[in-house]
Amino acid sequence: MRSEKNTKIDQDTKMAWEKNWEEKGLPEIMEIFDYPRVSEQMEIFLKYLPRDKRILEGGCGLGPYLIKLKSLGYNIIGIDYNLAPLKEINKYDSSNILFCANVENLPFPDNYFGAYLSLGVIEHFTAGPVKAVKEAFRVLEKNGIFLVKIPRTSIFERISYPLTFLKKNKTIRKFFGKEEKFSYWEQHFDITEISGILKQSGFDILDIIPMDQEHALIAYSSMFRDKLSYDGANKLGIKLAVFCKNFLPWATASDMILICKKK
Predict the structure, then answer these.
(1) Buried b (16+ CB within 10 A) or exposed e, 171-185
(2) How many Cα atoms sit within 13 Å of 174 on the Cβ side?
(3) Secondary structure letter of residue 8 according to DSSP
(4) Which is nearest to 53 in space by CA: 168, 153, 148, 140?
(5) Contact assessment for residue 198 and residue 257, using Cβ atoms and an 8 Å cutoff
(6) What crossing angle do the helices spanning 213-220 and 155-168 adopt, rounded to 10°?
(7) pLDDT by residue for the chain (263 residues), tens digit each?
(8) What is the enclosing helix (H) or strand (E) of 2?
(9) Secondary structure (3-state) at 233
(10) Are 106 and 121 in contact (CB under 8 A)?
(11) Rounded CA gap, 257 and 145, in Å?
(12) What is the dihedral of CA 16, 18, 22, 23, to 10 degrees?
């Protein structure tokens, strides 16, 4: 695991996220709740998130989960370190409670939230996830729930890695006259590694679930993508994802969700 901070890489990652949110529209993104893989995630969230306590989504971006959960009656607050997506959320629904802040330095008192939702965030810091995880622990009340979704390397990503590397390589892009592309920097953790970080920070791990076989297929090949959707799989992709989930759940998962509780 990387644990040495690189300010330049962190800034490039922030810029990549800012660029990403500029290119997306919230009404379009909200269609994700029709996708099988997102429905599966929502079942997990609804099972563990308390309805009678404050919830934080750290690194909410354009906030589709924030908006959806709020519409279901949850008392949820969103933060992101980019201001632009928060403005877009307010345009969509001005009743949301939002803060522009970094998950490594949260503007909330100790023991303030009953649950914390972190979806693809803590893997993007070059200094490692420890600071963000400890901040989550600090703002959660005793027995508070910490739901953490992080990426993992699926078999499909391993197969396609050489081509992906070439597409992102700055020298190669310059040679072919393509502009430099800011990419999200991220690191992947194995179960032992991330479990150790969470436990050392004071969390009990209730469950770990392999997720997003459907998304792994979409990322691997456009033949599995529904080109009329924002980010959905076609019928072939959905059927193959069901097979993968039933018979090769971990090998084909592009993400995992860790369900944790503050001791």
Answers:
(1) eeeeeeeeeeebeeb
(2) 4
(3) H
(4) 140
(5) no
(6) 40
(7) 656 788 888 888 888 887 877 777 899 999 999 999 999 999 999 999 999 999 999 999 999 999 999 999 999 999 999 999 999 999 999 999 999 999 999 999 999 999 999 999 999 999 999 999 999 999 999 999 999 999 999 999 999 766 565 556 566 656 666 666 556 788 999 999 999 999 999 999 999 999 999 999 999 999 999 999 999 999 999 999 999 999 999 999 999 999 999 99
(8) none
(9) strand
(10) no
(11) 13
(12) 20
Please enumerate in sequence order all residues whose Cβ is within 8 A of that of 72, keeping only pairs 6 or more positions apart, or say none. 46
Is the separation of the CB atoms in 142 and 112 below 8 Å? no
Coil/strand/helix, residue 54: strand
Beta-strand (E) ranges in the chain? 54-58, 75-80, 97-100, 113-119, 140-151, 203-211, 255-262
Alpha helix positions (H), 202-250? 213-220, 235-247
Residue in this structure with the two tokens 């660029």, named with its chain if needed: 19
Q: Full-prediction pTM beyond 0.85?
A: yes
What single-letter amino acid sits at 59? G
Crossing angle between the packed helical segments 36-48 and 235-247, to the nearest 10 degrees: 50
Residue tagged 């563990």 (tokens): 48
Q: Which two tokens stand for residue 75?
A: 């008392």
CATH number of the domain at 7-262, please?
3.40.50.150
Give residue 245's identity as a one-letter amino acid code. Answer: K
**Sequence spans of domains, the chain:** 7-262
Which one, of 59, 106, 53, 42, lies nearest residue 75 by Cα?
Answer: 53
Task: Measure the CA–CA gap between 16 and 43, rounded to whole angstroms.
Answer: 30
CB 49 within 8 A of CB 115: yes
